[in-house]
Design a protein that fits this description.
heterodimer, A: mainly alpha, MetI-like fold, flat, B: alpha+beta, D-Maltodextrin-Binding Protein, domain 2, Dipeptide-binding Protein, domain 3, 3 domains, six-stranded mixed beta sheet, globular
Chain lengths: 310, 664
Amino acid sequence: MGESLQFLFRRAGWYLATMWVVYTVSFFLMHAVPGGPFDAERNLPPEVRKNVEAQFNLNDPLPVQYFDHLTRALRGDFGASIKIPDFTVNEIIGQGFPISASLGLFAMVFAVCLGTTAGVVSAIRRESFVDFSFMVAATLGIAVPNFVLASLAIILFVFQIQLLPAAGWGSLKQIILPAICLGAPYAGYISRLTRTGMLEVLGRDYIRTAFAKGLSERRVVVRHALRGALVPVVSYLGPAVAGVMTGSLVVEKIFALPGMGSHFIEAAFQRDYPLALGVVVVYTALVLLMNTMVDFSYAILDPRVKLGEL
Amino acid sequence: MHPTLRNAFPYVALVVLMSALVWAVSFGTLPPADFSFHNGDEIKTVDPSKATGQPEHRVMTSLFEGLYREWPLGYELDEEGNVLNAPEPDENGNYPLDAAPGVAESVDISEDGRVYTFHIREAAKWSDGSKFTADDFVWSWRRTLHPETASQYAYQLWYLKGAKKYTTSTVTLGGLIEVELSDRLRVGQLFPRGTIRRGKLLGIARPPEPQHAPDASDEDKAEAESEWQERSVYLVEENSKVVAFSKGESTSGWSNFKVDWLAGSARDLPSEVVNCLHVLPDFEATVGVKAPDDKTLVVTLQNRTPFFLHLTTFYPLFPMNRKCIETHGTPAWTKPENIVSNGTYNLEFRRFRDRLRLVKNPLHWSHKQVKLETVDVFGFKSETTALNMYLTGQLDWITDAPSTVIPQLMARKERDYVPTPLLIIYFYRINVTRAPCDDIHVRRALNMAIDKQLICDKVTQAGQQPARSLVPPGLPGYRSPLCEPFDPVAAREELKKSKYANLPGGIPKVEILYNTNENHRAIAEVIQQQWKNNLGIDAELKNSEWTTYLSSIHSQEYSIARAGWVPDYPDANTFIDMWVTGGENNETGWGNPDYDAFVKKAAEEPGLDRRLRWMEQAEEILMAELPIIPIYYYVSKGMVSPRVKGFFPNVQDQHPLYWMRIED
């Protein structure tokens, strides 16, 4: 366990520094954009505006606001949302994140299962009709934007066949369409990575040895080749999981899912500074966490990898 | 890596996956509501002091109830809620609304129209069963007006005498003031307040005025000013003794400050300064609201305000439960498990960005007339998704159908998309300080060169009506003066009169600013082309996202900009009074002393009919000088399932749940 812990501590230091930089840049960028959270079609009387802004310390000089917010953020408190005063930023993220995360997880499971299977089959039957059609499908999956895919899926499975509900969150039926739409491009990418990885591994000496020992093709592929072929997939999974778990704005919007994706855009548009910062920090933390997990899983997949050397 | 760790990996992954599955499905165990609707957006708050916006309005009118409430004129129910009389719509399909008794069962209005005496219903109760008293309103309005509450809609209460002074902490020498000491039970919570000391303001001691550096920005100046104000020391007569109060932390050397004394006061300085949080004018003595007994509320207004009863149906004037707020604090009191309200519905739960659920309040005085037992309010943001859910029967009412499919929706055999005119105007704001729009002839020519009918027929397509006035039709008794109709020939003639007509380089370019949106762009493109074809004026299009767009308008960095105006109360005044010289929402640089005079006359006019005539005269000036170009009047774009009765389309697009019933 020693090498794992040492590895974690070293990483943690770097991560804190990275998050501080992201936080600081976001803070000042956000405040540099014209307009404020209380701008509206109807202007507030100046006296009222003063009271309102004072409540969120928006009257203070920027550096003072920065240090105020940073000290609170370090304690894990991102303050109250400006535009949604009934909730704190922590509550908003607390409600949205699990939903985005579970949707993301389903999407990833779908993407990994479909992607690796298709990739393996394509690699084994390379340059066959199956390979060709899988790779066309994969290219389509990557190229077709998910709002187009979602609209097509809704027309087909909601209005034509009337199999699934149009939108909402709460039942397994309601998860299927968004998970597939969210996972499709990842599935396409994973299948291509798997195919390439597989083709490379299948040409290696140890695979020839395995065949020479008289193992069945199935056993060679699943037990020996797949592990090696998945290494590029795994390194791709880190950032992909982070992205998918923090929610996809488009899919969440089309299927009316109460996840976290919408806050990314809306908090910035509405100049809800605390919420936007909270979301950025969570996303950064997630990306870093996922990268660490990826490094760990290299060690799981490949016994030759030593964590201490990463 | 340790082999056991490696072997454990697939199992850990499986557990994570199972828990995600359980989590996701746990949402689904909810029994469906009787009635579900799409509210357009997530509501920001259920705190009447803090709410702003239409989606909030739809929820607040169910959760809380004001002194009066909106009711279709002539709609009569018996005690059990059976319909005795159903009103007929006007030729546009709209029903006129009236302010009908809510928490108050009646009102007496004084002859000069300034004193309203409301009689609170015996049966009025809070949702926790406690009795409703007139003092609940006094307390709630104090909360909304208090500067620390920072209510954006505090100014809706400024029609009350003295209310503005309270929000702006304006104290005057010789006036009664209330001072709150810094001894609150909970820091950062306005209620319960710290010790309140009252007395007559005898003098204000101020430190030397701050000297601004010549290059100081406005912000720095404002900062220095407020710091200077903060350090002031207030000398208050309390039990015939003078006490000094100050909000500032450091008042050292204050005995050397310059003191403004009330003429004839004793002028002795106490040795100590008492630290305090707020120095406000005394609420009871200043603000025109009193509760002489439990069931009587007397409201004194600044001026005659003929729409005041309608204002009491608007959420900034709703009551709040003092005990609830003082126990839980803000914002915790708005949580479903804590909230105490007084409307026809109670808040059962609130899932952010998903839905909130309302259940009928069995303690409400009219609960037998309320027919929908449970209601789901969906707060996601996509109109297309809402339409999909409506078409598949998941929703009974959507408030805004997507514009792109409106021609198809109009052709539906269910006839559930029926646009009716609304009191909302789409217009172009013109910066009259910029060439060439500083010339009235140019503005008039620009107006006459727009084929608004074409825009309504080909671009907006939802049944909108082309506009030739600022105030939309539909307000009883008010007849808008009109600006010139579309007439390209007359427009060219008008343009020739302008001082720019004979410039060698032609008429300077204009720029149309709009917030990023497909519809706004399509309209701007049509207008751009019409100005080019009919007048030879080049227009550039510029779009920016909402907040940037707003900030360009506030700082008047635009030449022509798209705008819209939704009234807060059904009266022409809400459209007219914004264009007075230097008005906060004017933002065109335009001003006309005659216009200001008419607006002022209307505000002071006791005769209801004559008041409308003054406003019409004001609008006539506006339509002649055109600092704005009206484009079209909005229509409602809602769709409601045919099984829903009691919907009553109206110009304010208000559809409280307590009107509605379901008949299959």
